[in-house]
Amino acid sequence: MKRIGILRETKIPVDNRTPITPAQCKKLLSTYPGLEIYIQPSCLRVFPNEEYIKAGAVLSEDMASCDWLFGVKEVSIKSLIPDKHYFFFAHIGKMQPYNQNLCRAMIEKNITLTDYEYLTKEGKRLVSFSFWAGVMGVYNSLRLYGLRHDLFDLPAPDKKFSVADILNLGRPIISELKEARHNAIRILVTGNGRASAGAQFILNELGVRFVSVDEFLTMAEETIDRPIFTVAMTSDLVKRTDGYKYDREHFKMHPNRYYSDFGKFSGKTTIFIPCHFWAPAQPKYLTKDMLGFTRIDVVGDVTCDINGSVETTVRPSTHDNPFYGIDRIKLEETDEMSDSAIGVMAVDTLPNAIPVEASTDFGEKLMEHVFPALMNVDTDRVIERATLIRKGELTAPFSYLKPFAGV
């Protein structure tokens, strides 16, 4: 008999998501007859406790008898159970200082940690909430723009918010802007990953017109009769110092030999939705010295790299208070409605605003890629590659964390 435990989320701000839905619990139990699933009670989880019980799971505060424990965000140190195998987004692989104590505690408690972020096959991530971050990044960015310009008033999402709600609320607005030949909304999305795919999906579904990067940069204002968007890749955002053409592998190996070419977008963009991957050694894009002359009015930072490639993101925001402003002259935080400010949306748990669909999609990926390997044989080493700590010791690929972990 094997037991899976589904943990109650303990991180603040609160999180409504879950790694497994009640329907997926039911399917797991029918697929693996020797399996039991324990659910830690939660009044915050988007699916009620009763739905898990109906699916055949056991409601229990005590997770000590479980073989594997699944959460979404970091587990609080005081909640860690020694000698257990955990699955969650740990945010320690890049030596994030705010989780250093968590890393050390897991080692001290002889814990095994598998981090969702590193579940990969052929170099591609297998499970992620990123698509839904892009979806909500667009909605919140439009919401802030509408508020700042008194154009429209999109409501704050509630616990049952969905893609259907976004489309039902947003399509009439975009349609009205199109009929009014409103051309002030020019949206730049960056990146080619799942977050960018989510942002593009919603923009297309809302009826925002896609244009190429060249069109975005060269179109005459009088020819633009509706909101438009484009998608810029890293090759559009940087240039080589030696004048040679951008090369992805060269950029990864030598980011210091590139400089930002973001300035060409700065005067053409009104809403900037960053969805790109960025590493500290790479060039920054929207820098504070651009704020005095950029056309950008709203930054909906899906990446939420604090003081990273988008320097207006000085802190993460929350779903309750998703917006703040950065004064263009003083370069400091101010009210998001200020005329002298760039409005910033930097919620670092965006998928939590659309928890039913995000959790369902995430659980489906676990059902496809993780549970078969867990319950049978991990022939593709999917779980092995994503295991940072095994029984209190850092695994070889993550041995670089030893100074960070204090071992």
Can you walk me through this structure?
With 407 residues, the protein is an alpha/beta fold. It has helices at 22-31, 49-54, 100-108, 130-148, 163-179, 194-206, 213-218, 234-237, 248-253, 263-266, 355-369, 371-375, 382-385, 402-405; strands at residues 2-6, 35-39, 58-59, 68-70, 85-88, 112-115, 120-121, 124-125, 186-190, 209-210, 228-232, 238-240, 258-260, 271-274, 298-300, 323-327, 333-334, 341-345, 387-390, 393-394. It folds into two domains: 2-127 and 355-405, NAD(P)-binding Rossmann-like Domain (Rossmann fold); 130-353, NAD(P)-binding Rossmann-like Domain (Rossmann fold, 3-Layer(aba) Sandwich), CATH 3.40.50.720. It is built from 14 helices and 20 strands. An eight-stranded mixed β-sheet has the order 3-2-1-4-5-6-19-20. Strands 10-11-9-14-15-18-16-17 form an eight-stranded mixed β-sheet. It has a two-stranded antiparallel sheet with strand order 7-8. Helix 4 (130-148) packs across helix 6. The longest helix is centred in the middle third of the chain and has 19 residues, at 130-148. The protein is globular. The two termini are 35 Å apart. The relative contact order is 0.15. The model has no long low-confidence stretch (mean pLDDT 95).
